Every structure is written in C-alpha cells, then in structure tokens.
Amino acid sequence: MASRTPGGRGGSIPLTKDMKLRLGNQWSARATVAKPGDAVLSAGGAGAGPADALGLFEPAAPAVILHDAAATPSAVLGQPTQGALEFLPDERAAYVLMQTVETADGLIYDFTLPQQPAGDDGAVLGGPETLTFPINPVALAGPGGDSAVLGVGEIIGGVVGSELGGAIVKRAVQVLKSPFDSALHESIRRAEGEPWAGVLWDPAQSFAPIQGFEGWRMLLKPGQPHRVLLFIHGFGSMLGGPGTNEWFTQLGQQYDAIIGYDHPTIWCDPEHNARELLAMIPDDLELSVDVVAHSRGGLVARSLVELIEPQPKLNIRRLITNGTPHGGTRLADPERWDRLVSLGMTAASVLAAPAGGLVWVPRILELVLKAASQVVFDLPGIGAMTPDGEFITKLNAAAREGSIIAQAQDRVRYSVISSRYTSGGLASPTMQQALASFAAQTFFDKPNDLVVPTESMSRLDDTGLVPRSRRLQLDNDHFGYFSSGKAIAFMAQQLAD
Predict the structure, then answer these.
(1) Domain extents in the chain
(2) Which long-range contacts (CB under 8 A, 24 or more apart) does 241-247 make?
(3) Multiple choice CATH, 186-496, 3.40.50.620, 3.30.750.24, 3.40.50.1820, 3.30.420.40
(4) What pTM value is reported for the model?
(5) 375-403: pLDDT as tens digits
(6) Per-residue pLDDT tens digits for 6-36
C-alpha cells in the first residue's frame, strides 16, 4: 500500500493519476492507497474490500484508507463536508463513492453521489469531466459527551468533539461503478419479482406460497365467512423466514388463517400493490380481514380501504399500522436517496437478526442507488412516500360525503403504532449514534424512528389524528416494532376488542 500525506491541514493529497483527495480546512489526514488484492478491512471484517457487499457495483479505483482523520467540533450537521475525492473516469458508467467505517460492532456505510466542487481553492483534477464526491466527516464526542458517527450530534443533544476514542477500527473510501442500464425500469421490475401471497402454518417457519385460485379455495372454503389476519411488509423488505414470525402466535389464534403479502415496493405505487393483491383472491371467497402493516405496507392497506371500492371477498375490519409514513418521509425525496441507501445498508448489517426480517434487503437498496447514480428518479414506489407527492396528497384528501374514504372511516377501525427513537435500542453505542446521525441529516430536530417522522405515523388525513385510545408511541427504531412486547400487547388488545 502506498501512503500519501498532505503538508498540513487542508490542501490535497494526490493519490493516483486519476484520483486526488481534497481536504477541508478543518481536517488533516494520511491516506493509503490499497493495491489490488490488499485486504481493506481488518482480519475480523467481512470480505477483502468494502465493495464485497454489493452486486451491481464494482470498484472503479483502488480503495483509499484514511488514517488519523480528525474533525474539529465544527464538523457537525449543517457544516461543510470534511473533504472530497476527485476522480477522473475513463469510461461512461454510473459512479458512486462508498465510505465504510469499520467499528468493533460492525460496518457503517455512507454513500455519496458526485457533486459540483465547492470553492475554488485549487485546480480540479482533469477539468470539467472530473467527478467530485463529498466525504462526510467522522466525529465522536470527547470525554463525558455522547458520541456520534459521520459528524452529526444534534439528535442526541451532545457536543460533538474530535476524539475517535478507539471506536473506529478502519475507515476507507472507494469509487464504485456500474454500467449504464438503458432499460433500468424493466431491470428493477425483474429484480423485485412478482407479488405473491403466502399462508403461515407454523410461526416458527416461513410463509408458504398460495398457488393460484385453487390454493385459496383449498385454504379457505368458498360459501362461508372466514376470519383472516393479513400482514403487509414495508419498503424494500420481504416476508420473514424461519425464526422471524413468532410474534404472530400472540395475534393469530382467533383466525382461520394468517396470510402474508410479498410485493415489489420500488417500481409500482401502493395502490397498484393493493389491486394486485385483490386480483389474487377468488371472487367466491368471503374474508373478514384484520390487517397488520409495517411502514409502506400501511399505505398498501389504506389503498385497499380508501382508494378501491369495497368487495365482499376482502372485507377489512381493522387496520393497525406500524411506523407507516401516512404523511410521507423526506427519505423518499430524490436528493436524499443516498441517505436512504446509507441508512438501509448500515441497518441491514447490524439489525437483521433482531428485526425479524423487516430490515431492508441490500439488493433492493442497490437498485435505488443504481437509479440515483443514473439520475433516474421516476420510481413510483418510492415517490409514493414523498410528503408532498401526488400519492400521499390523494390518499390524505379530506373525506367527501359518500366517498370511499368517508365510507372507510365508518366501517374500518384504524390503530397506529408510532415511535420516537431514543438511540437505546442497540447494544452498541457506536451503531446507535451511526443510525441516529443518518436520521438527523434527514429530519434535523424532528422526532422520528430513523426512517419516518413520528408525526407522519399518526396523521392519516386532513381530518386529524386517530383517537388516543388507538395510538401507541414507542422508542424503538424503524425495524424494531415487532420485537417490542408493548407493541405486540397493544396489537393483541386492538384486534380483540
């Protein structure tokens, strides 16, 4: 590995003929360029390089390991980035910069897209074709203060200092590339797969796919009513596998069947998801349905209730949403898709086991990153969660007399579970603050569960909030609702009343 050191704070470090590290005035660092085959992560890290976690992207340049990087207390939310990496590409492709922060508790991912260079304190490498990637700072609190990763401290109320305190094992950045896909929308559609419904015979096992109309009729005999508990997952996730569905045992004993709906969440909007589910169910069934939904799944459920004429084959009686962005989330804004992917990849690396299969699937997040790197932002599944977008506006329109929404409010009982994350849900303080910092970059000082603003989870439409007796607020992260005893007990009570 070849090391490079600047003359002092600020300035730049030439790395290769195609790559240069530009330092902000508040940062000094020594950079090491890894050779092909060199281990970028420590012996305990997963894989030889940060890019090993990805499938659609590959290295476009050697990894750069940053040593002795120190940010002053000014490197906090709202302040300039710590520095930038300039890269001169030699082929037409989609490029991103991936920063990995290896800690004793796992990997923190931070993705950034190329931007226009700020300031004019030196010539840009290679001229106008050069890509400039901002590097977000790493700063942890000094003695006695709360810690934060990636330079954000406001969410936890502490003063961010410059002591790394031994929490960081290794820090690296690497430019990644992916070939341009002229048919990206179709590629995303194929990658997400077709929707399917499954039945949960045993909460210790996986959902078993229901095979066509006859599969439904074998499960639930036509000509008589059946009580069904329907679970709808959220954005970028899927139905959980063995060992992740035990919480259903406390909810599903009074039902004839527990059904899960697995569906794409990027290329189509929630109303499309809802109509596809209805199309799977034979018209000769009579299902009395209670719905439990997570995150974006609540928008699918509300589409079934509020945007589609009621049908006897799927009569929804109760709907409980967990962390649903009823009012949208700023993570769905195109300019924050890099935050969406960074948060999701980090969460997936540390929360997969305790979250019961509800953590975003890295493969799905890569598709979002691929789209952002190609400046393709017209993805209806994500756009449906934009706070001021067309879908949220339509869903939350004031109920007119005689409308489907007005009828729904009379026949369906809504309950909501929200959360105000307090960074106490993880055993690792480093990871607590890493996830909190991502949320702070998006929501600033507004309470949230790392993904959705707390206020957005409770306000279903312009008429106001769900009654207090049917609301529960927790302090977990977005992926912790179904591992919360309070949430399970609340849902059981709401479904029993």
Answers:
(1) 2-180, 186-496
(2) 241/206, 241/357, 242/204, 242/205, 242/206, 243/204, 244/356, 244/357, 245/200, 245/203, 245/204, 245/205, 245/206, 245/207, 245/356, 245/357, 246/203, 246/204, 247/203, 247/356, 247/482, 247/483, 247/488
(3) 3.40.50.1820
(4) 0.87
(5) 999 999 999 999 999 999 999 886 666 66
(6) 444 557 889 999 999 987 766 666 788 988 7
